Amino acid sequence: MRHTACIAVSLTLLLLAGTIATPARAQLLAPAPEPATSAPAPASTASEPAAEPQIAPADQKRVDAIHQFQKDVVNVAALRADPDYLLGAALLTRPFKNQIAALSFNALSARASGAPGAGPATWWLRLGLCSDKSDCPNAEAYKHLQQDAAGNAAVWLVALDLAAADKDSKAELAALTKAAAATAYDDYYGKALAGTTTALQVLPPLADTMEGAHDGQPDNPAGVRVLVAITGTGNYPRPNLDPVLQLCDPQADGMDAARKAGCLKLAHTLQWGSSPVARAAGLHLQGTLEPDAKGQADEATRNLAWQIQQYSALLQHALVDPTLAAQWLANASHGGTELSLILATLRDNHVPTEAPATFQPAAAGGSNP
After folding, report:
1. In angstroms, how far is CA 153 from the centroid of its own chain?
2. Is 355 among the domain residues?
3. Into how many domains does the chain fold?
4. Could you report how far apart the first and last alpha carbons of the chain are, in Å?
């Protein structure tokens, strides 16, 4: 079994390269701007590695305050027995080293999965809890998902990825058959984000998390919560969709009518799944397997690129707009899917979900008004 491949998104699957920004993730860690009159730094040599980027002391102080806020949220949310709070606390504690055992990712995610009312999202979160590459995905978590979420295509796409890594064509086809028979696709990111935003409500960010904010950095409590929610879920486990694209390629070895039918059924499921990545992959499959549908699939992909671009811009602006930030936090806490959150954010802010005629994804070299 593989660690990274079976739980990480391959960004090439988006087929929307260049259209997805990473809102706010690196803002606070960006190097402090140099004065306009500063002399350029000397070029590094092969024997002299480049220095790590430095940030201004005031920015570092704010970074430290935000990290402390995140730790404090974990401490308080961990006192709850509710699986949503525990799910959020587990995600928020993951970046920190040397946490006490009771506040470790392992302990908190285990409590979440064992709490009354816990759903498959808590087991999905534990897929990446691996001791080494041979132990991924986590066997216990994956067993629970296969038993309790057999109707979720995402579960079987993990199996497909594992089979592809082992070059087991028979297992690949078996996993494809199960994925095609599934009734939905959900990577549970929306549920994880809901738990995170819910946990972030247990404490207010203190003033030092915002003091001296500049250049789009969060300058209000809701904006701080948005930043922490996005960064806290940044390494969330997702299925790798590359193997299904390869197996369902019209020119793939052994492609026949039965496999094509299964791939088309899965394509439809992916299009209406939980994430923009899944939708992009489903549209791509639809367009390649049914040439007559390619024009419609391409237009839907263009609209998807537009939606992601506009959503990313709104999320960036939410850091400095408390009304927009509060709106996003409220929508995220409802526990819908990632795709439904994107659409709700656009509609709430009167942004059309269909791209204007002049818009073309950046990857296509077009203009992006």
Report:
1. 17
2. yes
3. 1
4. 44
